[in-house]
Amino acid sequence: MHMKICVLGLGYIGLPTALLLAAHGSEVVGVDVKQSVVDCLNHGKLPFKEPGIEDLYLRAKDRFVAESEPGAADVFLVAVPTPLDPATKVSDLSYVKRAADMIAAHLKEGDLVILESTVPPGTSERVVIPRLEKSGVAIRDFLYAHCPERAIPGRTLKEMVCNSRIIGGYDRDSTEQATSLYQTFVRGEIYQTDTRTAEFVKLMENTCRDVNIALANEFAKLAEECGVNVWEAITLANKHPRVSILNPGPGVGGHCIAIDPWFLTENSTRCRMVSTAREVNDSMPNYVLHITRNLLTGIKSPVISIFGVAYKGNVGDTRESPAFKFIQLAENEGYAIRCHDPYVREFPHPLMDMADAAAGSDCIVILADHDCFHRIDPAELRMRTKFVVDARNILDHERWTGQGFAVRVLGDGSLVHPVPLDEGIPSAGLYSTDATRPVTASSPPSVPLLSLTGERGSSSPVHGFERGQSSREPHPGNTRSYMKRVCIISQHFPPEKSGNASRIYDTAVHLARLGIDVTVLAPHPTFPTGSFPRTWRRAQEGAVDGVRVVRLWTWQPGSGDPGFTSRMAYYLLFPLHALLWLCSPRNRFDVIITSAPPLFTGIPGYVLRRTTRVKWILDIRDLWIDASIGLGFLREGSIYEKVSRKFEEMCLARADLVGVTTEELGRRISSRYRVTAPIELMPNGVNTDFFRPTNSGKKQQIIYAGNVGHAQDLEKVALAVKSMNGTYNLKLLIVGDGDTREYLERLVKAENLTESVIFTGILPREEIPGLLSESLVGVAPLKRLETLEYAAPTKAYEYMACGIPFIGCGNGEIAHLAQESGAGVIAENTPEAIAATLSSLLDDPERREEMGRRGREYVAEHYDRRAIALKLKQQIERITWTGA
């Protein structure tokens, strides 16, 4: 859709929206009343930080310009602030009114006006449209829709593209035109309704969140009265399949949740629950100050250090932050306040670095759950009095108490016990150096294991997920323990696009959300694509979605299909570097997880398991040695095979837990090697929130998305497409890269298939669900080798999650997956057999739709990565249990 679009308001929502529209082909003029914002953008700078926005700006800048006044356009999009009057709790619509008046001066018949700003129900009809009609153009002669934004800072671009959207048009034409515009960049579902309902829905969503947070905050207060740790209680309550309690905190902030409930109720006299929830959440800074005041009783001229003034973790946004109220209340009581926040650029109160903010202070109060706070070394802080109030439960409490700090956690009343009056009553949840509180249960956590036969406690070698068992029914585990520190060592991690890179990313993120302190060690991005610049940096540290990521130097092959020496240098230098990094006293962990292949990632796990008390989980995704022999990369009986076999045997004998992706893989390992540790099934799985059907229209294409490698019979699929094109005019989309891409491209050219077989290369992960959804069938053509019978390709799970059937080749696990899910068909590894199987699916749309529905239900029930991560967390707790 190529048109001229004028976006009014270039803030956290307006600017990303404008750049997305420009990046997808529209000419966009961004308008902002702040000249500083306009000048900043026109000089190639951005007024705020947001993940991915710099790259988006570079893609969009040739079709984007910033101005201080609007002009004629085909579409006007309003994304201006709608603040709340703090005195009256009534919406301030002055910015919306001004934007409507500015548009009216340029409005003409056929133009589309979209309001994204959040407003009270009825605002479009009562306020905006009448002002637009002052242009002389009546509604229906111009189009109008309300399309509320659904994105949060820190994830704005991803959520704008991937989240579902609500389109509320004044009439049918308005709804359809607005839908067409958003479909240019939105991959999520788009739902259509009327304008007033769209206004109501946005407010209802955020009000629901506000009410649920208020309930969690009430639970936190009650838990302190009852002597219960609310964080443990919430974790256990959420094991119930129909319960989802949020986390408590020091209050609610941001541009939506703290404001929208008042918009919903400003003209109502009947909404007691909504207003009560607002009052509960608005009072939480008072409650946190009450806790702090009790700790500081008797201290002369107390100083409070606030860590985190942003309204939430890992962002620099301070709008409606609870820190504002806490600071005002504390200063009114005479406390000296210092503030530290590594994400915030500007704040009314002076910001200091961490050391200066803590120096000579009496109490640190954690108000934002920035991931970096969990890694603070308290030994480096020079405080006068060592008190900490953790209102977000983000700190490593054991580490702080070990340095002599008394840590008070919001909602933890587990140290309240009846005591004689003359002994006094300890403060609820105060973790002081002389407090004795068990951090583990007095017996191992109960984690019943399911064997291949489904019998609990079976001696079968593979446990955890019985085929057909629901992954959404977790076994009970011990949650009463300090935060475990886990290091995952993987040769691949995003932005690399391999299946295991996404698997490790999802596993790490879900473990972090389950309360594990996760660090990932990975090389700098490079092989197998060879498309990344080489670097000689020894180590580079960052954070991705709550996970600490440390990039370590290794040899980086300069091509996608390197020679043996270059490949082995890449595989060997990384684990050796990881071992050196882990030998530092600063880098201590409870559990190390090494992901193989390559097999050599097990080097640090093996050495540290022999020399330290760390526990080791050996994650095995395939039989690397057998597959290399079967594919001709390794000669059977060679010295390389013998050394590799011996090292694999040593690793399997030393690990505390062996994870396998399929049952057949577990059987083969246990039959070949002597394995003393439990073998647990940890499938590849799929992120069913990310990979899901979109509203993309179907195209006459089939798709392969994954590594273009030697294990795939893609040339047979290409030749099958060639034989079918006289009837179906079918295209094969190959998304990805790998060792055999150049060979396949030569084959495609020689067979005159360049119009039918399209190589996209590696694409942004966000684009994959849309491409899968618009395809008719996915293909997973494993070569029919005995050494690959254990494999269940990740791509098959992704196809099913996006609601499309798949055609597989090979036998073993992939055949089981196709049969049990009802979402796949297995073909022989010949062009003729693949073509015949494809034809039968293409000729039967109802069958394809039914198979797609079954596949989506199957993976959501059995292979969701959140549930797999929960199982892994329980295994981590089991192997690290040490008794009372």
From TrEMBL:
NCBIfam families the record matches: NDP-sugDHase
The EC number of this protein is 1.1.1.336
Is the keyword Oxidoreductase assigned to this protein?
yes
What are this entry's molecular-function GO terms? Answer: glycosyltransferase activity; NAD binding; oxidoreductase activity, acting on the CH-CH group of donors, NAD or NADP as acceptor; UDP-N-acetyl-D-mannosamine dehydrogenase activity
From the UniProt record, list the reaction(s) this protein catalyses.
UDP-N-acetyl-alpha-D-mannosamine + 2 NAD(+) + H2O = UDP-N-acetyl-alpha-D-mannosaminouronate + 2 NADH + 3 H(+)
User: Which keywords belong to this entry?
Assistant: NAD, Oxidoreductase
Q: Where is the composition biased (Low complexity)?
A: 442-452
PANTHER family from the entry? UDP-N-ACETYL-D-MANNOSAMINE DEHYDROGENASE (PTHR43491:SF2)
Q: Which SUPFAM superfamilies match?
A: 6-phosphogluconate dehydrogenase C-terminal domain-like (SSF48179), NAD(P)-binding Rossmann-fold domains (SSF51735), UDP-glucose/GDP-mannose dehydrogenase C-terminal domain (SSF52413), UDP-Glycosyltransferase/glycogen phosphorylase (SSF53756)
Q: Which family does it belong to?
A: Belongs to the UDP-glucose/GDP-mannose dehydrogenase family.
Tell me the ranges covered by the UDP-glucose/GDP-mannose dehydrogenase C-terminal domain, including all copies. 305-397
What are its GO biological-process terms?
polysaccharide biosynthetic process
Q: Which InterPro entries match?
A: 6-PGluconate_DH-like_C_sf, Glyco_trans_1, Glyco_trans_4-like_N, NAD(P)-bd_dom_sf, UDP-Glc/GDP-Man, UDP-Glc/GDP-Man_DH_C, UDP-Glc/GDP-Man_DH_C_sf, UDP-Glc/GDP-Man_DH_dimer
Q: Where is the composition biased (Basic and acidic residues)?
A: 464-475
SMART domains, A to Z? UDPG_MGDP_dh_C
Annotated spans, Disordered: 435-479
Source species, domain of life:
Archaea
Keyword NAD appears in the UniProt entry: yes
Can you say what this protein is called?
UDP-N-acetyl-D-mannosamine dehydrogenase
